Amino acid sequence: MNSRIRAAAVAAALLGVFAFGAGTAQAVDPPRALPPADGQFDYQIGGPYTPLSTVRVVSRDRLASPVDPPGRAVYDVCYINAFQTQPDDITWWEANYPDLLLRGSRGSFVIDGAWGENVLDTRTATKRTRLIAILDAWIRRCAADGFDAIEPDNLDSWTRSDDPDTSAYDELLRQADNLIVMEAMARSAHAAGLAIAQKNTSEIAPDLHGYGYDFVIAEECQRYSGSLPRTRECDDFLALYGNLVYEIEYTDYALSVYNNACTARGARISVIRRDRNVVPRGRAAYRYSYC
């Protein structure tokens, strides 16, 4: 084999193992599956239960089991609270990572009052690196457990980071710092063979789509569309992600919101209506509609 043919053969072999970018070699990510376009969605992060036979996409908490193995009838999404704590986990965070809990100027915890969740601190490179390591371990666990994708939540935690120790409107976190963590999560998910969903936050959709986010789980995009000038959340998501958008509207707002969503997009994407706490089927508060 002459040197030119040998060089070509070696290059071809390497291309099967490495992707080249910015002058450095990087391992090629394993293949990942995307959710079925317009596949009927069910949101089960409040507790798992057997989905309806027509359901094709289910999101569950990372500590729950997926519905079935990859490649089977249901596409399983692993919910991760990426930028805030789960209410029941605060003791774990305080014991293991107390410095990652965001505090105000006089030491008070920054809390998302709507859900009783502590906001996590992304302000320094050191803290972001430690948080990314935690999230990477959770993502790899989702893959090992048999999920197909991850759904990191509370991407917009900077909007809930007002200093509780002052009376001024003073956001302690920056969008740019959260975006660094979001980009790292996309790399971790894809390296584990998982797809990654953008959760809400349409204003950063171009950034996340550019990082390789694969689909969208959108809460109340119909409700919020038009609430501010130029706010068109649902349309913005569809423009970037096509019909890989899975929309949830909630029962504590008018039925007309859900009906309007179905009229506008129900023929193109999965739109569901659920109770606010997304409780398991069998409980009195459970509600689920699909169009």
List the helices and strands and how they pair.
Layout lengths: L2 H13 L2 E4 L2 E4 L13 E3 L13 E5 L13 E7 L8 H7 L14 E2 L4 E2 L6 H21 L3 E5 L21 H17 L3 E5 L5 H7 L3 E5 L1 H4 L8 H9 L3 E6 L4 H11 L4 E5 L13 E3 L1
Parallel strand pairs: 3-4, 4-5, 5-8, 8-9, 9-10, 10-11, 11-12
Antiparallel strand pairs: 1-2, 6-7, 12-13
Structure description:
- There is one protein chain.
- It is built from eight helices and 13 strands.
- With 291 residues, the protein is α/β, with parallel strands linked by helices.
- The chain has two domains: 1-30, no CATH class; 32-290, TIM Barrel, CATH 3.20.20.
- The strands form three sheets. A nine-stranded mixed β-sheet has the order 3-4-5-8-9-10-11-12-13.
- 35% of the residues are buried.
Q: How many distinct helices?
A: 8
Radius of gyration: 21 Å
What is the fold-level CATH name, i.e. the topology of the largest domain?
TIM Barrel
Lateral arrangement of strands in the main beta sheet = 3-4-5-8-9-10-11-12-13
* N to C succession of SSEs: HEEEEEHEEHEHEHEHHEHEE
Second rung of CATH, namely the architecture of the largest domain: Alpha-Beta Barrel
Give the CA-based shape.
Answer: globular
Assign a percent range to the helix content.
25-40%
The level-1 CATH class of the largest domain: Alpha Beta
Q: State the separation between the terminal residues, measured CA to CA.
A: 62 Å
Largest sheet: 9 strands, mixed
- Strand share of the residues? 15-25%
Q: How many individual domains?
A: 2
How many E strands? 13
Low-confidence stretches: 1-24
Q: How would you classify the helix and strand content by structural class?
A: alpha/beta
Overall pLDDT confidence: 90
